[in-house]
Fold these 3 entries.
Entry 1:
Amino acid sequence: MTKEKDIGYYPGCTLNTVARGFDTSTRESAKILGINLKELSQWNCCGAVYPLTPDNLMGVAGAAKVLSAAEKEGERLTTLCSFCFNVLKRTKTGLDRDEERRRVVNDFHEIDYSGGVKVLHFLEVLKEDVGFGKIKESVKTPLKGLKLAPYYGCMLLRPFEEVGIDDHENPTIFEDFLATLGCEVVRYPKRIDCCGAHISVSEKEIVAVMSGNVLLSAFRNGAEALITSCPLCLYNIERSEEALVKREPAFKPIPVVYFSQILGLALGQDRESLGFERNMYDFRPLLKSKGL
Amino acid sequence: MKIKIGVKDLRSEFIDLIQRITGEEIALCYQCGNCTAGCPAAFAMDIAPHHVVRLLQLGHEETVLDANSMWICVSCLQCYSRCPKNVDISRIMEGLRQMSLRKGIDKVEIKQLPVDILSDSPQQALVAGFRKLVN
Ligand code: SF4
Ligand code: SF4
């Protein structure tokens, strides 16, 4: 048994509510893999989007507060939601290289963030801390015969020089991760394209086309399910399946699930705890059809 | 006829402002179109991303501000990722949105949003959407 590794954990708003399964399945698999996720004793919303006009310091205020809380509790902070990860990491980069910005934000909150915390996406923790080799050894139920398509979207990869968890044009971390669980990894062109993100609140039809393009690309390359690390990607894609059936009659809806649910499944976690019942398109019949 | 556009030709109050709030240099773009080729939302834009930059270079700010492009842009950064000149169009689009929002002109009115969107959306969609589309 390896010694448990401590790491600060930021769930974020969405994982605390609609994406509960994403959170609970991860906590459970982390335990099995010897990672001690310590939820920050205090946290607030990260702000969801990193402001793209550098003069908008208010836009990083929320994330700065999270970073400041995190550095008091440890040297490293991990999160699951791609949006949270992107905002926290970009905020950190922006504040760490600009003393003036750091001072203004610190004064505003009356905090003293100093740049002392490293921000990691949980996939990076799985790769670097645990190692894919060790995960492979811990797999109890190899996902044999399942054809799964990893979906990166934008926030894990761009901007590459600030947040990229892997190469921004040809990433492999997600594929490598899924391969360790014994499934067949589907490669498809649109795995790094955007699902439509926040314009789901204003432009549903456009999101349906954008998400539909991703889905169709995965489907045509043989995907039986799409695997994501972002609750907004999941939401947009699930809600675009119907429109895609109309646009492309050959298309059959496929389930969209979080990577941690797949991990939990392979590690032999209690199925009931993985949150599959919340998915719009049920993943369980597919499992059954593969004898899993 | 040869058209030559240098940094000096690109001085206007509008260009100065947008360059200041975004940190981008409009003149850098040489119109290769890589941004638009990779943009997953270009199909729905009145004016494609590289044309937005071109129109700004030529001083047609009204045309750009009247177009839906800045509201359709999802800040996915694919344009920036593939730009050989390191132009970040996602920032230019945000600068254009900010020009509208900072004057109090919003893209969506929260009260008018359908109830199913408000009740059904993940929190991050609402927070992100309101930050991008509402002052
Ligand atoms: S990719 Fe860059 S240089 Fe090419 S058209 Fe777009 S902004 Fe201009
Ligand atoms: S950031 Fe905007 S303009 Fe750039 S590729 Fe994405 S949607 Fe298109």
Entry 2:
Amino acid sequence: MSAPCARLWEVEAERDGRLDDDARASATRHRAHCRACREEHTALHSLGRRLADEEGPAWDALAQKRLRGKVLAGANEARLRAPSSHKRVAALVAFAAVMVIGLVAWKRAPKGTPPAPIASIELRDEGGAIYERATLDGTEHVYLRAGTLGIKVRHDAVTHLLVHVPDGEIEDLGTTFHVSVHGGATTRVSVDEGRVLVRKANGDRDGRLVSAGETWEPDPALEKASTQATVATPIPASAAPTSAVVLRGPSPEPKPALTKRTVPAASASASASASATVSAPAGSAVHPPSEEDATYMRAVSLLRAGRRDEARAAARRYVVLYPNGLRRQEMDVVAE
Amino acid sequence: MERPVKPLVNRPVLARRAPEISDGALVARMCEGDTSALGVLYDRHAKALYTFLSRVTSTGEAEDLVQITFMRAGSLADRFDPARGEPRAWLFGIATRVAQESRRSIVRKARAVFRSIVAPVSIQESTKTDVVRALDSLSEAKRVVVVLAEVEGFSCQEVADMLEIPIGTVWTRLHHARGDLRAFLERGAP
Ligand SMILES: [Zn+2]
């Protein structure tokens, strides 16, 4: 079934804040004359209303009050137990919770998460590693809370691995490396195969290349001076498997750290300058995007920069890599 | 006899002045050890969190999860950073994590820690509306995103921050969630 209007995707893009002011104005003008887009707009609006209007399950007032008492009594009890250092108790409780999470996940690891783990990823505890592993929407996630974990990913187009560390994440595209986390911060990333570029967001444009046999460690002076995000991008123009290492500033759980958006160049031919021109959409705090986002954003940024031929090539690349991608229609138009 | 810290469960002063105090100020008071501030935060957000947790977990444990959410908010208050968003988003972020842990059965252990005994109340399948059944048909990842964005009204960026996932992933999940919901509601199956 082909879409009745090539701009239909804009309706949802607008709703989700993916359009800038000009594009939004253009979409609104277009909608006035396009029945298909108007209908799509109404359909999405009605769906939203239906979901929002759905009344939640009844929760009787007495049960609410009873629970309130329990919450406050529990909180008071925690304070009374250690009145002079409630913060330390809180930290210990949080730590204990993390330990429980880690241990349970560890014990359940072989059958804990519903989808089968991707076979081409090997994880090895190299010293006190507390981690969980999960498959979510086709991406393999590893949550490393403490200790050292050895990670080996066999290069495979289907495999996509994200290693979440307390102060950031490490995106792997097929390599072998080791990550150490201590005291809630990443203390070491060493690479056996492939290579990564570690870059501080606060003005360090060149970053630091970590190749096979090398090790990344935070610079203690810089760590103290700034809580700015550390951002790394894959190395362009290389046939070697490459990883993007993204380390954010200290991130108190459960709030995510504020990071500047940096688009890891998805393509092997991506140039650093092109990825640097990509700006974040409205709403400052942005996480490093997925490969699909990066590919899409690159095409869009090139288009905005007036570099049509490069934009067309980037869009074609998107279409090839993500035939069922969310921005397929949009990229088809750019690729023509 | 003098105790080092008085329990503040029923202190009426703060509750009476509640409407004037912002959520952010309440969290700041929690950091000072003022438990009654947690009570006001509970009064403002518990019902919404209960509804949210009922929708995203559908395990009949929402009340339990609300308790754990607020207990955790109490212990994490000093790590709340107002520059990074509203307390409401922070609470929903905690609740989302609690829901994820619940799925992995971790909350069952945590429950013992908090010594909470709450009988789970399961929702009768027959009383569910089409919309609720449509939501139930989604994967948890898609359900959480669509409920946060479409029901709770958080922006995609706020959802990305809460879940600590790239905004592109939020967009993708929302897109697929809407598609599945529309298919379910139009044809009665996803
Ligand atoms: Zn149209």
Entry 3:
Amino acid sequence: MISLQNVSKIYSLGEDIVNAVVDINLEIKEKEFIGILGSSGSGKSTLMHIIGLLELPTSGKIILDGKDISKLTDAELSKIRNKTVGFVFQSFNLINRFTVLENVLLPTKYSKERTPQDFTEKAMELLKRFGILERRNFYPNKISGGQQQRVAIARALIMNPKIILADEPTGNLDSKTGDEILDILKNLNKEFGVTVILVTHEHDIAAKTKRQIYIKDGKVVEKYL
Amino acid sequence: MKIQNGYVHLVKTALSDFRRNKVRTILTSLGIMIGVYSVVLLIALGLGLKNYIEGQFNSMGANLIMILPGSGFTGEGGAGFGGQGTVGGVSFDERDLNTLERISEIDYIVPIVMKGASIEGDSDKKFGYVMGINDDAFKLMNVEMEYGTEFTKTDIQAATKVSVIGYTLAEKLYGNPSDALGKTVRVNDQRFKIVGVAKKKGDQQADGALYVPFRTTYASINPDKKFWAIYLGIKSDDILPTVKAKAEEALLKRYKADDFAVTEQSELLNSINQIFGIINMVLIAIGSISLLVGGVGIMNIMYATVTERTKEIGIRRAVGATQNDILQQFLTESLMLSIFGGILGLLFASLSVFAIRTFFPASVNLLAVLVSFIVPSAIGVFFGVFPARRAAKLSPIEAIRYE
Ligand SMILES: Nc1ncnc2c1ncn2[C@@H]1O[C@H](COP(=O)(O)OP(=O)(O)OP(=O)(O)O)[C@@H](O)[C@H]1O
Ligand SMILES: [Mg+2]
């Protein structure tokens, strides 16, 4: 479904050059559950942003469903982010001036199909599934971290994406809440066939995924230390 | 469907944001409000002044052709009665009346003798205008009687010593205008019996005039038997150019082209309209400065808002917003801020106009309403586009990391 070919990302901060991602080749198939594992600063987030088309690589190719995305316009890339990809971040990244329900519905405002009513029903369904339906009119800063992350997952799912990209989704949560979030992601993959890519620096979390990729200094390595 | 859904979302979020930041919203739109307020008010005042003057003109009857000495109206001074607006040229006499009488389309021919003079009543004397005219003048210039009667054709032919007195002059000389009837006034050595008191017209010159049969002035007031002007009245607008041409042709046999002018009211109105056009432009320019300052204020706040919402922009980009979507979001907000200011400005200006209406015929017209929507819209877009573009150009990842 997605293939990365010799993908590199170089940041230049004036004189300094940071090789955040170095010559990565990666093949991700449909319905996979992948863990990307690496220490802090190894380039996991950067790699995830490149897979999610939030950032373009400095060099190399990304082929999505057989199409080279380097030729796509901003509008086309945005449409893929809207329809095909769902992001879940460590720091939740909800919009505080919107309610829970409005946050879940945010991606639908940038969609080109269906009527808003359909989406509201779908959003309610998701919130119900994650046990936060009665919090739908709350603002994000009035609910717990675990609840916020569920809202973020509901938002990631509202457009029925094929891929969920989760960047340390449990990083800000206690282990019990974190496990609940991981179970949700696991279920999404198992029951609904969503491809889940989970970025983490913890071995035991990565162990829950079906395939692990180890990253060190921006490169894919055989074994995680 | 998409566009509608998207726009509803944009407008709703902007509105809820304004509600959350009421004070900031009002302060930001204040500049535009003051700008629109002044522009609308200035337009309303200019319009009122224009209406007022046009009203004065219309009181003189519609289809009036004026034969004036010199090249006619020069753009200053009062039109119609006043001699100040004309330069040089000839004086007319009864020969010209006879010449003009041959033009069959003319309904009224009125000679105008006009002299500023001291007019003496029983105990008092006041400055006023002696106007030597004929009986048709009352119809042509819409002079109606408050008390008494007009003088007649017979009075003209016999050069009777009668007069009709303007309302204000009667008031000044006799206190109560109705007391003027039957009294005798003196101008130079001539005496005139007052047979009528004219209704108040609101025109200083007309209300301060003493109307007398023009031939009666041939004694000491106007020994040369000359007229300052000749007014022609016609029934319909259509023949106005024809009559003008014929009158001109007839008079050219006697005078040089530069010595007289055949003009119509609408020409005078045009010059006045032009002057008001210029005044309006100047007033609008002044208002525009406030609008400009208001626009800069909006731009300033929008830059602050973009910075404040950097993270939100990143989040929106991550869930599928295009650069254009972000641009639209901030443009909508600056546009709404600006239009909000415009509506407030229009509202307050309308209230002010309503308040001054009792003593001045100011009015809010379609132009003012259009200006108060179109101008702020343009300002909102123009000053909003810079911050909005900055927002749109943000890198999604850097934006989302922004704290
Ligand atoms: N916008 C940027 N500009 C410059 N350097 C950057 C930028 N983003 C990331 N980097 C650098 O690239 C490297 C990889 O960063 P990245 O965020 O991908 O690491 P990570 O594996 O996600 O780390 P963590 O586990 O701490 O989140 C780091 O050295 C970082 O400093
Ligand atoms: Mg990271």
